[in-house]
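Render this sequence as a predicted structure.
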Amino acid sequence: MTNTVDKKEIEQFSSLSNKWWDLSGPFSALHKMSNARIEFIKQNATRIFKKDKKNVNFLNGINCLDVGCGGGILSEKLRRLGANVTGIDASKNSIEIAQEHSKKSRLEINYKCITTSKLLEIKEQKTPDKFDLVIASEVIEHVYDRKTFLSDISNLCRPGGLVIFTSINNSFLGILFGKYFAEDILKILPAGTHEVEKFISPENLAIEAEKHGIILDNFTGFFPTFEFKNIIHKEFGNFKLSSNMQINYGAAGIKL
């Protein structure tokens, strides 16, 4: 099976793995985007089961795969909502940080240092069980073989299950803010974190995903806010859901 991992990308994230839970470090934008990401997930999760949105254990009983989980920022939030979470990442260092932090947080999360292709291969050999919810948040812009990656995501999700992506638009503003503003001006991300060539628009992601049986039909923007103190400290403010998808966006849909 083809490996979708870009070794250069993994080395980059591995070198920063001890910074995953530094709220003002290189992954600060992911922390600040977390609440908006969870809100988008909750909005779409009602499509595969019926629950009261105010319920603390909103995702109780849902088998969830967090692809490219890194240090576990999103995985922990999903677990706190009741999901049975499996978090995978190709960076051993990041997985070790995630495991250590989840223990401190007293959260039971199944972390694995493995690629989507390898996980799929193992699951096909052992059990046909697939995930109810598959999330690839801020990941697809880092893989080098998007076609295989989308195929893996599709095959890991059960028919009728929910697939959610979040990524950076390859629009002018997406490139400006997601690449140059974040890496060269604010310098909240190390230079070289993103490759513009890997950015994809919501429209093209929907077209490519459909070829693999994933019908993406719900989209929203994640728009960064800025206050004076953010500008002074060279940082993003929190993110909010928005109709503006020109920078970051979320895409959700059902696996056929």
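Summary. The radius of gyration is 17 Å. The chain has a mean pLDDT of 89.
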